[in-house]
Design goal:
Layout lengths: L8 E7 L3 H12 L7 E6 L4 H13 L6 E6 L5 H15 L4 E6 L3 E2 L3 H7 L6 E8 L10 E4 L5 E3 L9 E3 L1 E2 L5 E3 H7 L12 H11 L4 E11 L2 H7 L3 H16 L15 H17 L3 H19 L6 H9 L8
Parallel strand pairs: 1-2, 1-4, 2-3, 6-12
Antiparallel strand pairs: 4-11, 5-12, 6-11, 7-8, 7-10, 9-12
Length: about 325
């Protein structure tokens, strides 16, 4: 889509503690067959020991990149704000594309090269996401938004044919300058860590911004569902499996109640972000159908003896009127 025959690309990542992960990611960026033209790291680490270590890694890698910027935040402002800040800086400096990368992932060495070969075909380009553990299992990070606003995963397997999608998770996504000028950046007013990419997908779709999955281009990321199981988050793991199953088979409205506020910091984040998505993007008959279906399914799960936050979920629906969205 860009008129530039040699488009410029700025890689952006948000660091949060864990210097080893940041080093692994940046090493994969340094090894790209098509080098990046810029690199921005937004550091949310809070603790000086981590920010110092992360900055040393930043300075030691990709020394030949024409533009580099390392920004330390005054406190942890979340991934939504971090990526937004990086997008703003890259945009202000005239880059044609921003390449968003999660700290806990990495990119195959020809990833950027393959993405840029399709840069005239879409405003948002998405590589295929594989498990960082076995480098072969495809993860459900790309997909379609159905009528109800659900994310329906698209798995391409060994097929490397490009295909149109309408939803993505952040890692590896390249967003054009044109798309940013059309709809802006990630929404950090309503999101903190998680679902800001889902919201951005909604906004891209509403503005008819073309998104393309480029399967020959590959990035790697932890399998989040396996990660939850490993951490012992059985309730979250169960409801995540239910969510994926129902959405992939039936395409029913989302299980909003499975993200009820459990009193933890992350619980409050999940609680608010799903409500914001709901209020921002689902209206009319879909609003009431989603509420009815969610409560019905939660009731069935509760009757079956599952530990679900049923009363918290009801309160969550009632609190919709108190949420301000932009």
């Amino acid at each position: 889509m860009t008129s530039n025959n040699n488009p410029t690309v700025c890689a952006v990542t948000v660091a949060y503690k864990n210097p080893e992960e940041l080093a692994f990611l940046l090493e994969s960026v340094a090894c790209q067959t098509r080098p990046v033209d810029g690199l921005i790291v937004i550091d949310n680490s809070e603790e000086v020991a981590f920010t110092d270590s992360n900055e040393k890694i930043f300075k030691s890698l990709l020394a030949g990149v024409p533009y580099k910027e390392y920004v330390v935040m005054d406190k942890n402002r979340g991934s939504a704000h971090g990526f937004k800040k990086g997008m703003e800086i890259a945009h202000a400096n005239g880059f044609d594309w921003v390449w968003l990368l999660d700290q806990d992932g990495c990119a195959e060495e020809r990833c950027l090269e393959y993405l840029l070969k399709t840069s005239r075909k879409a405003l948002v380009l998405c590589p295929k996401v594989l498990s960082i553990d076995d480098r072969s299992s495809e993860l459900t990070f790309r997909g379609m938004l159905d009528f109800w606003g659900n994310f329906v995963p698209v798995l391409v397997g060994p097929d490397e044919s490009e295909r149109v999608i309408t939803a993505f998770a952040t890692h590896g996504v390249m967003i054009s300058r044109i798309a940013m000028e059309e709809i802006g950046y990630f929404d950090d007013r309503n999101f903190f860590c998680g679902w800001e990419d889902h919201d951005y997908s909604f906004r891209l779709k509403k503005h008819n911004c073309h998104m393309l999955l480029v399967p020959c281009s590959k990035v790697y990321h932890p399998n989040l569902l396996a990660k939850y199981v490993k951490l012992g988050a059985s309730k979250l793991a169960f409801t995540s499996r239910m969510y994926i199953l129902v959405n992939s088979v039936c395409h029913f409205p989302a299980f909003l109640g499975t993200t009820g506020n459990d009193g933890t910091f992350l619980g409050r984040i999940r609680h608010r972000t799903r409500l914001v998505l709901f209020k921002k993007h689902i209206k009319g008959v879909r609003f009431w159908a989603t509420i009815f279906f969610s409560i019905f399914c939660l009731g069935l799960m509760k009757a079956a003896g599952r530990n679900v936050p049923y009363l918290d979920s009801i309160k969550m629906y009632l609190s919709l009127k108190d949420i301000e969205v932009h």
